[in-house]
Queue: 3 jobs
Job 1
Amino acid sequence: MDGQRREVNDFIIPKSQNANETATVNPIMGGGDSSTHSGRQFYIRYDIETGSYRIRDLGRGYGAFGKLQHAIEIRDSFLINIGESYVVSYLVENDEMSGADFGGSEQKLKLKIFPPCNLDKPDVITCQNDKQELIIGRSPNCDIRIDDQLISKMQSSIRYESRRWILEDGKDGKESTNGTWYYLNQ
């Protein structure tokens, strides 16, 4: 172990203790018998040198997601969960704006939105890198409208600032009801 101190704590979700207990089914994530589970889903590692924690998904189940607590930079292939929908981001070079005059290349943001009822045909939205803020939600007034009763009227916002795309939960400091979640293994 290279002379480093290592401490491991394990918590495994226990199987049902009551044999007469009925199985529970999660309507969003699918079936499941409360007496079985697929083992470890993720692990948390503390780095003594940096004083920070890292979470790693172990590739079982639906993945480990964290609730967005503050604004976060959107990266390429970023996976976001909003209600029952999933959104995947792609950063696309904007050829028209690239070059020495602009000090490098700007990026467009392409979003693929996978609603729960139509996974084969995602909605594709390309966001220009202008200064406007884009609002995601179920309200007809939103720039990106997702028809999902589990999300807020104004669920989250995306803006382009300092040559980066930023995602934030809610609008004007008010959080969404069920939160915006992002895949932790990114």
Note: Residues 68-183 form a domain with the Tumour Suppressor Smad4 fold (CATH 2.60.200).
Job 2
Amino acid sequence: MTQRTHLDDFLRGIIIGRLECGRTKLKVSDELGIAQSVISRLWQRFQDDGNVSRRYSTGRPRVTTPNEDRYLAFTAKRNRRSTASDLSRQLSSATGTTISRQTVYRRLGQIGLYAHRPVRCVPLTATHCRLRLAWSREHILWTPQQWACVMFPTSPALACSLILAGLSYGDHQAPFYGWQRPSSPCKHLCASVVHLDMLENFVFLQLEELQPHVFLQQDGAPPHWGIIVRSSLNDHFTGRWTGRGGPIPWPPRSPDITPLSFFHWGFVKDNVYRRRVSNIDDLKARITTAIASVVADMLAGTWCEIEYRLDILRAMKGAHVDVH
């Protein structure tokens, strides 16, 4: 791409002089090697105001003042969840100045504040990688008998009116169902209250005989982090649960080394949604069938997969493990 240059005043004078002598714009263009459109605009401007000097401008004036820019920055830092539209409305309400969302982006970008961008996986910090690496080194030599004492529960919402929770313990699978309260909005399906209901009404009851030997693992999802959930786990699994805020630390942001994340739910969903679901009864039946098809040999292979992933995690120095 060629760089645009401006005509100096001397060359502008030559162009106007030759045109006033009767030469055509095409002739002047050929003689000086300047585009005819440039010469036409220069001649038109000379006829309009008798001046051909270049006009200098400071550009479009800024919509916001320095004080308003500082107000935007302060508001954005005070509430990190504010959108550009929210900040624009708050500025208009406080100062009477109305700006677009793009202006908000530019002003905040000038001080290093940018909107969150969706990514394929949550970026890991140096601390995250260090903790994940340390955890992999500690557990890489665990035996199948040691892993058999760890329970990996989870509670993803496979449908708006159903929560399916799977229990993986050694070579056993125990499917059980939760429910959605009629008055609860769908977006709160996996809230801490619902997760606690699932634990107290299903998990704890089904594990009464196994609890003295079982360690519960949670991956630190928002429903797992609730105070009521952690309090209940401390009562039922005193000193024997792993997770965020638990007595046994779990490496942050590590679904890639959780069996129910890297194997079980992918297997179940692939089978459940292979064909279009007609109704909720059909969905429940498919989930039950998919879980029932998980046999002991498949679970045994899952424990080998954990060892393989921990080995890769150690080689990658704590980075995400993306193995298919």
Note: The first helix runs from residue 9 to 20.
Job 3
Amino acid sequence: THWAWSDVLVRIGVGVAAGVAIGLLLGQVLFRSRARSLRLAEQGEGFVALAAMFLSYGVTEALHGYGFLAVFATACALRRSERSHGYNKV
């Protein structure tokens, strides 16, 4: 039971929580920043999404969470942060 708690449940929780937090933070920067140069979603750079996923994976693995789950949670939170933006209609 100790293994199930520490290695599975905690790592799943860290992965999902970190992914959602990173996705919401990136959503604020990419879609709602006051500085137009920071609104990277309007510039249409596809590598930004890829970099966001690498960031999410790396940070979560450094926190000893499941990076794969964090990437999924980041993508969901990022997409949810601004559904009406054209960037999310692809």
Note: The chain has one domain: 2-89.
